[in-house]
Write a structure and sequence with these properties.
Layout lengths: L3 H4 E4 L16 H29 L2 H27 L14 H29 L6 H23 L6 H30 L3 H29 L9 H9 L4 E11 L5 E9 L5 H16 L3 E10 L2 E6 L13
Parallel strand pairs: 3-4
Antiparallel strand pairs: 1-4, 2-3, 4-5
Helix pairs in contact: 2-3, 2-5, 3-4, 3-6, 3-7, 4-6, 4-7, 5-6, 6-7
Keywords: Ion transport, Membrane, Transmembrane, Transmembrane helix, Transport, Zinc, Zinc transport
Protein name: Cation transporter
Subcellular location: Membrane
Length: 327
């Protein structure tokens, strides 16, 4: 029977592993400031656009305002999720609330999909029976919206977009920018020609953009919840790299997943040659994973191969090594 406690080493390398969420130099506090500033900017303009859309009888403007409402809700939810993610691990939540940000991103994506469906249905009705639309109102309000969203996109581009939570908010705002451009074109056409159906066509463009952004967020957040390997990490390549290391004879139960954005994790069972210190080999593997793949949260069980049986495990005979329990 293997001495599992002596063999199962949980290594986190805490000096490096502050989860490295802002390795590119953007702090969590800076992210919160950028999101708060964008939230205030968009909330103010959204209220103005709702009034303008009602006055102009423009579905394109109202759909833009509806999308802006999701922008505001997305940023507010992102800020709450960032606050929750800072809470330390406690009790049954051994990873803390790191995935609150992924929940936020998924909620943003689902909201975009639902709204896009509603705007598509409404736009079809308006194509059949178009109301009278004030093209001049639509054009100038959309132009102002382009300016506001350009400013919001610039603010959000400074935040850490490698965070799926922040990226979800950014995609909301970027989609809204494209929607305002489509709406401005529609307003100009209506103003110049009086062809009111173009307002519904612009709303369909907005809905299509929302579908695309929403699908991307649901897909990416779903990968995290299903514990798929991060897109930039390939388990086959990691397996080859580990097996190529000196004294490694066999690799079993390799799992690579993502706890939250920029927090990849790995666990595996490694069999090493019986004549080497399995804990030294484990540390070498951990160092390689950190340097070549950016994985700092590793759980490696290292066993010796039984002498004469290179694929059979035997207890490590070189001491306990470092054992670290999850908080």
């Amino acid at each position: 029977m293997h001495a599992r406690n002596a063999l199962h080493a949980h290594h986190h390398d805490h000096d490096h592993h502050g989860h490295d969420h802002h390795a590119h130099g953007v702090s969590a506090d800076a992210d919160r400031r950028y999101l708060t500033l964008a939230l205030l900017l968009l909330t103010g303009y959204m209220a103005l656009e709702v009034v303008a859309g009602i006055i102009a009888s423009s579905l394109a403007l109202i759909s833009d305002a509806g999308h802006m409402l999701t922008d505001v809700a997305a940023i507010g939810l992102a800020l709450v999720a960032m606050h929750l993610a800072r809470r330390p691990a406690d009790g049954h939540y051994t990873f803390g609330f790191k995935r609150a940000e992924i929940l936020s991103a998924q909620a943003n994506g689902i909201t975009l999909l639902l709204l896009s469906g509603w705007f598509i249905i409404e736009a079809v009705f308006r194509l059949v029976d178009p109301p009278q639309v004030e093209g001049r109102w639509v054009f100038f309000v959309a132009l102002a919206g382009i300016v506001v969203n350009l400013l919001a996109v610039w603010i959000m581009s400074k935040a850490n977009r490698r965070s799926l939570n922040v990226e979800g908010s950014f995609q909301h705002i970027l989609t809204d920018l494209y929607a305002f451009i489509a709406t401005a074109v529609a307003g100009a056409v209506i103003w110049a020609t009086g062809w009111n159906r173009v307002d519904a066509l612009a709303a369909l463009v907005v809905a299509g953009l929302m579908l695309r952004a929403g699908y991307g967020l649901v897909r990416d957040s779903g990968r995290v919840f299903l514990e798929a390997a991060p897109r930039d990490l390939h388990p086959a390549a990691i397996s080859e790299a580990i097996l190529a290391m000196p004294h490694v004879n066999r690799l079993d139960d390799l799992h690579v997943w993502e706890v939250t954005s920029e927090m990849p994790a790995l666990s595996a069972h490694v069999l090493v040659s019986h004549e080497v210190d399995c804990h030294d080999t484990r540390r070498e593997i951990e160092h390689m994973l950190k340097q070549h793949f950016g994985i700092t949260h590793t759980t490696l069980q290292t066993d010796h191969c039984a002498e004469g049986e290179p694929t059979e495990a035997a207890p490590c005979a070189f001491g306990r090594g470092h054992v670290h329990e999850h908080a």
